[in-house]
Every structure is written in C-alpha cells, then in structure tokens.
Amino acid sequence: MSTRHTLSVLVENKPGVLTRVAALFARRAFNIHSLAVGETEDPRISRMTVVVDAAELPIEQVTKQLNKLVNVLKIVELDPAAAVERQLLLVKVSANDSSRANVLQIVDLFRAHVVDVVPDAVTVEATGSDAKVEAFLTALEPYGIREIVQSGAVAITRGARSLSERVAAELN
C-alpha cells in the first residue's frame, strides 16, 4: 500500500545537489509529488521538502541511500501530527460584474488575498494545507479557473527544536 511521506532533507548549499537528490528518486521509480528547496537561516545549508507517495519499506531504502550522498547532511521524515505543512497557490479566476462579489466572498472565507484585478478576472494568493488548497479550488471552480500556479509543500516541525541548528553546529 502506498502512502504519502514528507521528508525534510538538509543539504549543503552547493550546485548539483538538487539534481543528485532528484535523480535518486527517479532511479527508484518514485514520483515526487512536491518539491521545495530554499536556504535555511545558515546560508551554507539548504532545506528540501520532498513529498512522495511510497510504501513504508521503499521509503526507508531511499532514506538510507539519500544519507549516503556526499552533500546530504540530515534527513527526517516528518510526522503530519508533529509538523506544520503549507503550500502557496496563485489562481486566476474569471470574475465579471455579476460574479465578482461571490468570488471575493470565497476569497474572504478562505482567508486568501486578491493580488490582481482586471475587468474579467481576479488573481488570488492562498496559503494552507493541501486539504485547504483543494477545498479553495473546488469552491472557485464554478466561476471558471483560468490558471493555477502552485508551490511545493514546505514543512517544519512544531515546537522549539530546530533541525538545522544541530547540523550547523556540526559543520563548525
């Protein structure tokens, strides 16, 4: 049985690291559902948030193989109950004079933000969990979604403990 796994991977901030990590998933025939990469508070370290659908055993094998890559510093599989996960969505929705008020009401209900308005459309920014983003899109669908741009998920563990602080201390 396949389940969704969110991996937080700390890597050295060097060229080619993303390619090597993605290639490892490709070699193992995993489809990456979501991938987001960015610098951490330490510019020498980047954090990759990788969301994949996989069975338990293969994800463990991939984690072990990732640990063997030279520039990989730390890998943690995030427990959904112990982490905050969000994604960013930009969506362009048809909105003429008769439908604009209804679209704006949905935007307000989901605590999203209008970032652009033209006579026949609005562009909206929303952030939230995968479920919230899906529900938002479902609510907007009847009005005509013209375009969607979506980021990969980013996730961080709840509480004061910092994954990257420990790794940065080990690099010093």
TrEMBL record:
For whether the record's keyword set contains Amino-acid biosynthesis, the answer is yes
Q: Which residues form the ACT domain?
A: 6-80
The Gene Ontology terms for molecular function here are: acetolactate synthase activity; acetolactate synthase regulator activity
The UniProt entry's GO biological process terms, in alphabetical order, are: isoleucine biosynthetic process; L-valine biosynthetic process
The similarity annotation says: Belongs to the acetolactate synthase small subunit family.
Query: What is this protein's function per UniProt?
Result: Catalyzes the conversion of 2 pyruvate molecules into acetolactate in the first common step of the biosynthetic pathway of the branched-amino acids such as leucine, isoleucine, and valine.
**Protein name, entry field:** Acetolactate synthase small subunit
Which species? Answer: Peptidiphaga gingivicola
